[in-house]
Design goal:
heterodimer, A: 259 residues, alpha/beta, six-stranded mixed sheet, four-stranded antiparallel sheet, B: 252 residues, mainly alpha, globular
Chain lengths: 259, 252
Amino acid sequence: MADPNAPILDVRDIDIWYGTQHAVDSVSFSIARGETFGLLGPNGAGKTSTLSAIEGLLQPQGGTVRIAGHDIHEDPAHAKANMGVQLQSTSFHSDLTVREIIALYAGLYGLPTPPGMVDGLLRDIQLEDARKKRFGQLSGGQQQRVSLVIATIHNPELVLLDEPTTGLDPQSRRQLWDRIERIKESGRAILLTTHSMEEAEAVCDRIAIIDHGKIIATDTPQGLIDAHASDPRVQKASRGSRITLEDVFIGLTGSELRG
Amino acid sequence: MNTIELATPSRLSTFRALFKADMRVQWRNRRASLMTILVPVIVLISWSGIVAQMGGPFAMSSCITIGLMAVGLMAYANSTARAREKGIFQRLRVTPAGTFEIMASRIVVQLIQMLLMAVVLFIAAYVIDHVALSVGGYVLGALFSVLSGAVFLALGLAVVGLVRNAETVNSISRFVYIALVIVGAIGELGVLGTLAEKIVLWSPYGSVKVLLLAAMQPSAWDMSATYALLASLAYCVVFAFIGIKWFKWTEE
């Protein structure tokens, strides 16, 4: 019997090197069932490498990644069956229609696709009329809705969302936040990367800030603000009377441009 | 830590889903596929003199070899490079689908296209040049077209393995294709001298062509056909090894 308190994602001491560059340095964190965890960091901080290691796209030189108890490298099929991924760039077959893409990914997770099943999913995201369109013909917001449906089509224990609202208008962004909230309410764990501090505050239960390959702070959004409000670097970064999560982020990671 | 058992799809079911999608993509690109199939037919029509001089199976084996190279080098290499450039493989790799299934379904689709091309050429040769093979010749010709196609699919994979950029893959595969076709087709006729003829004979073009020629005339199978079979297998293994060893799933 599975322990309901066991973390759904358990990242332990992962190390990633690119030649002599230590891109990820002993990064560890875990995410519990029903928790939304944000991984924030400037460009080149090690976010994407960490995420790639969790997704099984990259083999770290050290450490382990376990998803629902399955090691991503020793038991990738089980680990990936328990994980749904929305990648930063939505890369689906451009020659297939939306309906066909959803049917393909349902098949990859071994799900039957009885008549009407895909149309039902599209109806849920108000895209029933788009079922015969090619993915590239959809707007950015519509593409993200389809991507999210595909990421959650098999009811995974863990959902990875890599900058899901980048380039979306405020309406689409709010709608996506609502969907993320519903995924969380269904008891799934979510790992989210974003450059939007507003988004992190709105949807994340806990946040880790990563910089130069190391996690430099982990807490709830308010916990991070409270813990670092008196830090001179954070106060220097502040542009108003109230310390915000963005002030904490810039204070801890520096204000110089990256990447 | 305890494990949670969410149903893991079988390799067969993931392969089936990928194959269905890859077949659909091939169907959507049917105009390009049709052109690839028509190239050897057009060559056959233009070679009516060679059919009369060297015999139907000789011309047909050359035409099929040219067609197989077009599928392996041009169609397969370029579509794989483009899929990699678009990030399609990365998206598939975060699902339970294994890398073997991802690649195998694409290869099977190309092998089907090669089989179709061989059948169309058999029909064209019969209709245009009244060339009829024995039943064994048709069966073995079709079978060895698929087996020989693997040589050029492996060569295409080697190109995609060694070259990351999709545009460069396109240029190199075209160059290799044209070089193999021109040198092979002219060289096999002895126009470029005996040394060139021997080199062509042992090239991927030559060994596949000799193999197909023997397959279409099973009663005339000899040691040169066996050597051609061994050479084709060796090319297939070497190219596949290079392609698999150096293949990267992303352009970066």
